[in-house]
Amino acid sequence: IAGVHATAISGHSGSTLAAVSDYFPENAQKLAAEYGAEARTTDEIIADPSIDAVLIATSTDTHSDLIEAATAAGKAVLCEKPVDLSLERARSCLANSVPTGQPVMIGFNRRFDPNFGAMKAALDAGEIGKAELLSITSFDPAPPPIAVQFMDMISGWNCLGPRDCCRRKTCWKTLLSNQPPMGLRAQNPPISS
Q: How many Å is the Cα radius of gyration of the chain?
């Protein structure tokens, strides 16, 4: 996902990709070189007063701490979902970040997807009837490298499993119907080798 975000940031006339950080420094160096940025540590990026915004696309267990550190350092934040696996910790992050006055946005990007917008408008206008059942099948183009899968299992993110996918699908369902789901079912695929 880092490449997707790097392309978006670099391609926008109002932004500059200044620095990249990654758990694997060689990944940061490669991405930084591709986009003319610097490879730096997360702490260096947060401490740099010339950087006014950060995008957080790390494992879920790091999101709250990074949001708090970045907002405390005066930076705007765009963070991948979810804020945390713990609702209590997510609320604590909110309480700690709001007083900084820095904007924080969580990346529920389907809200801005034109296809979802068109479907939502058609549902709201009654053009396609009343939604009774929403069944979503979604696949990423490929599983992440096994090392990332292992790190994600340790952190609790589970990039291949129901916790991530259900979160995403729940957002879609709520967006389209203006109602929370009545129930969820997910099946976790086996981890590839």
A: 18
Task: State the Cα–Cα distance between residues 45 and 47, nearest whole angstrom.
Answer: 5
Give me the half-sphere count of Cα atoms (radius 13 Å) on the Cβ side of residue 164: 21
- In whole angstroms, what is the distance from residue 64 CA to residue 79 CA? 9
- 61-117 pLDDT tens trace: 999 999 999 999 999 999 998 899 899 999 999 999 999 999 999 987 777 778 878
Q: Of 107, 103, 109, 59, which is closest to residue 85 (Cα–Cα)?
A: 59
What six digits make up the tokens of 166? 């259900």
Residue 90's SS3 state is helix
Separation between Cα atoms, residue 151 and residue 99, nearest integer Å? 32
Tell me the whole-structure pTM to 2 decimals.
0.71
- SS3 state of residue 31: helix
Q: In 3-state terms, what secondary structure has residue 17?
A: coil
Length of the chain (residues): 193
DSSP 3-state assignment of 127?
coil
Cα separation of 134 and 67, whole Å? 33
* CA 47 and chain centroid, separation: 22
> Tens digit of pLDDT for each residue in 119-176?
888 888 989 887 777 666 665 555 555 555 555 444 444 444 444 555 555 666 666 7
> In the Cβ-directed half-sphere of 131, how many Cα atoms lie within 13 Å?
19
Interatomic CA distance for residues 136 and 113, integer angstroms: 16
